[in-house]
């Protein structure tokens, strides 16, 4: 089993090294940065920063499905007829939209650590435990994302007329089938702009995870800045990388929106 | 043909529908139970770890941290509002260069994380110490609080500029034309007709922006400003007591919820002329 994982991870890292936009065969740093501080070798910081870029991007990409999944079910629960279900989910969104992301991150990171330590101590294991920063970041950002996402999806649900559900009933669809074939396609179309904004916010929030020690863009550039004493240049590079991520995702979302609206073309 | 000759005798009220125990109800109760258990657990942690000495020692520093947070947010929101006006005018001007400059400013500050901007100002500009000293600005950039204020002001100015622009553009053209038809100068038309209507549209996004700033201001703790988050981290690093984070969370939640409810009230009050009774 572990051999399989090792093979998988090496395949993924090989694939990543091929398409690496910064230090790959046709990467920006490889083409223009050689000989400078951003070279992709031991002389420069290019490869470290490229690694951080990958970490940031993969953290955001891994968090997205988690947040969407939880957010979808919370949005469903928020329009339930049952009062206790609505109350429970409203408490969830109030808490996680009200707390600073940094504080949520610390609470998850240290809280998980304390809980894991107590649990392991209760079964007789007395070593200090260290929670993986990537997982802690994924949980914290996913929880915050899902709280915001549920509000976006809830307003999208409310924008779908009730007749659509009735149409599903009239066709004899099961509830799940109505959701999948009738509601979801429209929901995606309505919610996409809001989800795009949330994705941008998520990308920016990933920078916070550098505080608990994940080697993302900000942490890697920070180390480079401290060692090379060129703080302005390196933090400028970090800003540019985040700008690039934002631009790429805004292009991607524009394409997605065009795809989602393909049925609305003028005839 | 049938004719009704007798009235239907009075019937008792139909029995109340029996509430079936649906899955939704079950899940709802279960989740509420989880919340209840979590709050009881947190309460027990607090009671269990309650230490008057700690409270006396760190209570005042939490209050001062709260003050720092509120002061920072208030200052940066006000200064940012002032700075956003020229940006909006540049963004909406017919001059292409000005408009693009303002767009670039807004895009930069909205496209990068606040924490990166803070590092760029605090560590980045801090590395130009000789130059800053020769210009006589070093005293400003030496202090982390000033750097945080500068970054937050620049950042919130970009967001507020977008809010204001959206709000101004949402005012119908006819309002401007109406003002022109009445012979009002453009300046008076803007301040007396366009802006008041735009502000009502902008009220809710402004509230959101203030909440975002309160939450975002937690990151100044990383550059050694002792705001609420900074005091929490300091207290935690000295005591390793997890309840410090719980106290900070409660304080932040109270701040945000109070502001949110204040804003709901404010919006109700300011839009009461738009409501139908």
Describe this structure in words.
- Chain A has 267 residues and is mostly helical.
- Chain A has helices at 2-19, 28-32, 46-78, 83-98, 101-122, 133-159, 162-170, 175-205, 217-228, 231-260.
- In chain A, 37% of the residues are buried.
- Chain B is mainly alpha-helical and 277 residues long.
- Chain B has a single domain (61-269), classed as MetI-like fold (Orthogonal Bundle).
- The model of chain B has no long low-confidence stretch (mean pLDDT 89).
- In chain B, 77% of the residues lie in helices and 0% in strands.
- Chains A and B meet through helix 4, helix 5, helix 8, helix 9 and helix 10 of A and helix 1, helix 3, helix 4, helix 9 and helix 10 of B.
Fold topology:
The complex is a heterodimer of chains A (267) and B (277).
Chain A: H1 2-19, H2 28-32, H3 46-78, H4 83-98, H5 101-122, H6 133-159, H7 162-170, H8 175-205, H9 217-228, H10 231-260
Helix pairs in contact in A: 3-4, 3-6, 3-9, 4-6, 5-6, 6-8, 7-8, 8-10, 9-10
Chain B: H1 23-48, H2 52-92, H3 96-111, H4 114-124, H5 129-135, H6 138-142, H7 144-170, H8 173-181, H9 186-216, H10 228-239, H11 243-270
Helix pairs in contact in B: 2-3, 2-7, 2-10, 3-7, 4-7, 7-9, 8-9, 9-11, 10-11
The CATH topology of chain B corresponds to: MetI-like fold
Backbone shape of chain B: flat
Rg of chain B to the nearest angstrom?
A: 28 Å
Contiguous helical run count of chain A: 10
Unreliable residue stretches of chain B: none
* Average predicted local confidence, pLDDT of chain A: 85
Largest interface: A-B, 50 and 48 residues
Structural class of chain A: mainly alpha
CATH topology of chain A: MetI-like fold
Q: How many E-type strands of chain B?
A: 0
Query: Helix share of residues of chain A?
Result: over 70%
Domains of chain A (count): 1
Q: Largest sheet of chain A, described in full?
A: none
Can you summarize the main beta sheet of chain B? Answer: none
What's the end-to-end separation of chain A, in Å? 55 Å
Query: Looking at the chains present, what oligomeric state does this protein adopt?
Result: heterodimer
Query: What is the H/E string of chain A?
Result: HHHHHHHHHH
CATH class of chain A: Mainly Alpha
